[in-house]
Protein: RND family efflux transporter MFP subunit
Organism: Paenibacillus taihuensis
Amino acid sequence: MSLSRTSQTHKRRRRILKQTAAVIACVSLLSGCSLLPQKELNIQPPLVKPAAEKVDAIDVKKDTIELKFSGAATVVSSYNVPLFYKQSGRLKELYVKQGDEVKAGDLIAELDMGDLDLRMNLEKLSLERAEIVLHSAKASGESGTSLRMKEIDLEREQLMMDAMKEQYDSAKLIAPISGVISYADVKSPGDGLNGYTPLVTISDPTKMRLIHTADDSKTITAIQRDMPVDVTIGNDKYEGIVVQSPSDAPLTGNKDVDERNTKLLYIDVTTKGAKLELGKAAEIKISLQKHDNVIVIPKSGLRTYLGRTYVQVVDGDRRKEVDVQPGITTSTDVEIVKGLETGMKVVLNN
């Protein structure tokens, strides 16, 4: 009986030990799992609302647009007289310079004629001698061949004197009009001169106009005779009118002159009392086209691609392309003839 009880007690102890060992093993396993590296959590960033696109757009409205030609001009005389020698020679003296005022009859220049003065004085004596001889012959009653020979001597000396005087006069350039020397060649005494080459030009300061010389004839092809001109000289503003443009310039038959006329504008100042000084610079403006109460947008709003002309307009939260027909175009603005209406918003291509 006691053996049986002892045996049961041992069995109970062994069972308890097994259960305790099992519990310890489970606890060990659980604690070991906590030592393993844990998987990192992937946290998504918060959603941010995208910023709205900034659109540089303007409201379509009606305005005035004007295309103007602007350029520089110079005050010149409309009446100019060039002075030149018909024969070549050497300059004795040039008595004027550019900008000088002269009066009709003033001596402008002289050619060096060598000993012409001496020869003229000698010829005066020869002429006087022939006159005395002829007068004496007539007083003594000579006639016939003897008298005729003395008459011939006098005629010969007179012809010589006339030729020398003509040569002497041709050596002098005399001002035919009063005015201002607008051009003077740079010459010194002894320099050679070619015949028919202008030495100086006299301009009448009472007959002034403006002249514009274009670098490219295409820039002034649209300008016509009688177009009004806004003229500015210094701080003074005047009114003017086109009196000659390339479209109505006369054909001269001279290729160089005709070619030059394709680049010239002549303008008369119509304002009474205008102060025009020869050689002064002026600014001119000529209206070529002007439209009032039309749709006008900045030029940066107009787009072209492969022959297509269009604009982008704001349509809600998006852009829409609209084909347009442009009209007058300036350096900053453009007229839209067809395709836009007031109230639309055009996106600028800045």
Notes: Residues 2-33 form the longest helix (32 residues). The longest strand covers residues 281-298. The CA atoms of residues 72 and 267 lie 12 Å apart. The helical segments are 2-33, 116-139, 144-170, 255-261.
